[in-house]
């Protein structure tokens, strides 16, 4: 999706008549800490109403690698940190396997609030629900702000939602996964543009019938990102 189409999607009104747009909540100055504080009060789309809290990105401010998922899960929503559930643990293992220290990376999500539904008939269990296009578009300013502040060399988008948030609505992970891709024109207004690698979300590995094969595919894609970092640092 082009920046214009993202903006158009964010213009759709929310339940109280406001536009879906996190842009007005971004601070005009400051680093990641200032943005994290501002994001805590974001009401750029209705997802804030049911979520426990905003889950902003976390990691090294000098990170050369940024990993972008879809949205917080149940545990992330409760703890206020990204990738702390089963999918996060699997991702950490895969990243370490390709020779990247997770302590030197930065992890975040395309959408900063947990979207969920309840089981039919009620119950306390919260079931993940994929965010809508306008919710992804509304939250995109936070993701782009993180990337501008971090200035990473490689961004790994995990799954379809993260990939489309950054690469556009026509992007297909199944078609272009594991390739070293340029950042779309106009996404970031800076000279040093990061490369992008798309792969599956680690939660897809946990759901796969053949987990070993799915995990191997994730690791293979992450090796592309690791190789790009090695070449840049050589």
TrEMBL record:
Keywords on record: 4Fe-4S, DNA damage, DNA repair, Hydrolase, Iron, Iron-sulfur, Metal-binding
CDD domains with a match to the protein in the record: UDG-F4_TTUDGA_SPO1dp_like
Chain ranges of the Uracil-DNA glycosylase-like domain: 56-223
GO molecular function, one term: metal ion binding
Chain residue ranges for the region called Disordered: 1-23
An annotated GO BP: DNA repair
Highest rank taxon of the organism: Bacteria
Database matches in SMART domains: UDG, UreE_C
One Pfam family named in its UniProt record: UDG
Family to which this protein belongs: Belongs to the uracil-DNA glycosylase (UDG) superfamily. Type 4 (UDGa) family.
Descriptive protein name: Type-4 uracil-DNA glycosylase
